[in-house]
Design brief:
Layout: H1 12-16, H2 22-33, H3 37-46, H4 53-69, H5 72-88, E1 90-92, E2 99-101, H6 105-125, H7 132-146, H8 160-170, H9 178-188, H10 197-212, H11 216-222, H12 229-245, H13 248-251, H14 258-266, H15 274-278
Antiparallel strand pairs: 1-2
Helix pairs in contact: 2-6, 2-10, 3-9, 4-5, 4-14, 6-7
């Protein structure tokens, strides 16, 4: 019996996470996550993202890709590594001096919700044809992954309405802080070595595009200007169109080969495609 992993080709997750606009969505989610004072303090105090920017971004992307396209064993192993790290680490609340546990369910729930809401919202805005029913289905599917990091799926929003209600409840806790400013600056210029100058020049407009697709209330909290709406629309559409023009055999192998390995494992019928999404 073939192992489709946590999701499989007949899920919205399988189709959406292969879209090129996920690059922008992933960066956008980091801007959003940074607005939670305790969550961002835990990241700043425990992560080497300023010394190893590429490594930090790649590890995050690899976790999402492994849990989406890997085997069940690979997904569970990735989750176990995350839980082990979270159990070992803690941080200090800059405001109160209290200990912050990285395995705090409230923080894990925030990170999950900020992530999947950004993924779905940005990719859909870029042109991915996601219906309202499929969006509900996506949020429900994503609850399969939260158990990997130690959350109870029943305590995580599983629909568009539940997700909106969650953000409404948590918004009073969110604010711009010195730590969120560090993340904002990092995501605008994450690469330091001189030999990465071409990457920097190509990334800079994308970093601000990802900021510009945040919800209006989140940009207001960050307090920084965004690109004008026409520029945002053109940028998202252009980035996605360019990505889709890359042949699948190449696009599904980089930056990791998670999608291609899943297709090799399950057969060509597992190839992510908009045509498959329309049948779901």
């Amino acid at each position: 019996m073939r192992d489709e992993g946590l999701f499989g080709p007949q899920t919205v997750t399988w189709q959406l996470h292969a879209d090129p606009a996920m690059w922008i969505a992933g960066i956008c989610s980091l801007y959003l996550q940074a607005l939670h004072p305790r969550a961002v303090a835990a990241v700043v105090q425990n992560s080497r993202f300023r010394e190893d920017p590429l490594g930090r971004l790649m590890r995050t992307g690899n976790f999402v890709a492994t849990t989406t396209y890997g085997t069940t064993a690979e997904a569970e192993s990735a989750g176990e590594r995350v839980r082990r790290v979270h159990r070992m680490l803690s941080a200090t609340d800059p405001g109160t001096g209290a200990e912050i546990r990285l395995d705090d369910p409230d923080l894990l729930r925030w990170v999950h919700c900020a992530e999947v809401a950004s993924f779905a919202g940005v990719v859909r805005r870029a042109g991915f044809p996601l219906t309202d029913a499929q969006l509900d289905r996506y949020f429900d599917e994503q609850r399969r992954a939260v158990a990997l990091v130690g959350l109870d799926p029943a305590e995580v929003p599983g629909s568009t309405r539940a997700m909106a209600e969650y953000f409404e409840r948590i918004r009073p806790e969110l604010q711009r802080t010195a730590d969120s400013d560090l993340v904002y600056d990092f995501l605008h210029r994450p690469f330091a070595p001189w030999w990465l100058l071409p990457v920097n020049l190509g990334y800079l407009p994308l970093g601000h595009l990802a900021y510009s697709v945040l919800p209006g209330w989140a940009r207001k909290l960050h307090g920084r200007p965004a690109y004008p709406p026409p520029v945002v629309a053109a940028g998202l559409c252009g980035f996605r169109t360019t990505g889709l023009a890359v042949p699948d055999q190449l696009r599904f192998r980089y930056p990791g080969d998670h999608v291609q390995r899943a297709v090799d494992r399950l057969g060509k019928t597992a190839m992510p495609s908009i045509k498959t999404l329309a049948q779901l």
